[in-house]
Amino acid sequence: MTLFRSNVDRKAREGGLDPARIPPGQYYTDKWPVLHAGGVPRVDIATWDLRLFGLVEEELRLSFDELLALGSEDSTADIHCVTRWTKLDMPWRGVPMEAVLDRVRPLPEALYVIAHAEQGYTANLPLSALTEPGVMLAYEAEGEPLTPEHGYPLRLLVPSRYFWKSAKWLRGLEFTATDRPGFWEGYGYHNEADPWREERYGF
Fold first, then answer.
1. 3-class SS of residue 89
2. Across-strand partners of 52?
3. Tell me: the pLDDT tens digits for 165-186?
4. Better-predicted residue by pLDDT, 2 or 86
5. pLDDT at 93 over 70
6. Closest C-alpha to 70, from 102, 48, 105
């Protein structure tokens, strides 16, 4: 582990970066690997929509243009994959989660959010995680629209968690009173997914 960490530190410093920003067990990369289960869905943006539902005052079904009308912002975030790579200072553009929450107004009993994506994929998070800095519904990365492989047209971005929680090909957010394990959690991945605690697996 000491040798691995020293290599991580060296590569980060060579890139002009502070190695303390890289969580335990991770290594720095300037690439963005493509990882997902199943194939890449084909999306028709003309018929695509995002459903916001469950324990909220106002359920919504938004077209892509209607979603963008909520407002957009630019953000820079570090992302950490459970497969051990970390990419730092990645630029994003998207709809801030605060704007979404202000519009739907979750009810007091809403404690969790289930992200629904294409092909039946889900990811679960406490509602509190969506109020953390940098959380957004992202539609651009590194100055370009998301590619199909990285989640076009929309993905959830939750920088504080391992990247499987940032569901690609997002189609809905369900606000619930109880937690429900998502796709990868059903295969033994950790429910919380904090990279700084190395919460990779739940067993």
1. strand
2. 60, 173
3. 999 999 999 999 999 999 999 9
4. 86
5. yes
6. 102
The 10 Å Cβ neighbour count of residue 59 is: 12
Nearest of 81, 76, 40, 41 to residue 164 by alpha carbon? 81
**Strand pairing report for 122-126 and 49-54:** unpaired
Distance CA 103, CA 70 (A): 8
Main-chain dihedrals φ then ψ at residue 66, nearest 5 degrees: -65, -35
Helix extents (H) in the chain: 2-14, 64-68, 97-104
Cis peptide bond prior to 153, omega within 30° of 0: yes
- Strand pairing class (170-176; 112-117): antiparallel
* Cα 122 → chain centroid: 12
Query: What are the residue ranges of helices labelled H in 80-174?
Result: 97-104
User: Average pLDDT, stretch 35-53?
Assistant: 89
pLDDT, one tens digit per residue, over 8-21 is 666 777 767 788 89
Q: Structure tokens of 106?
A: 């979750």
Do 127 and 158 meet the contact criterion of CB atoms below 8 Å apart?
no
Reduce the DSSP state of residue 187 to 3 states and report it: helix
Q: Is residue 5 predicted with pLDDT exceeding 60?
A: no
Task: Please report where in the chains the tokens 């499987």 appear, as a residue.
Answer: 164
Q: Which residue has the tokens 């994003």?
A: 92
Structure tokens at 23: 């969580």
Provide the pLDDT for residue 16. Answer: 75
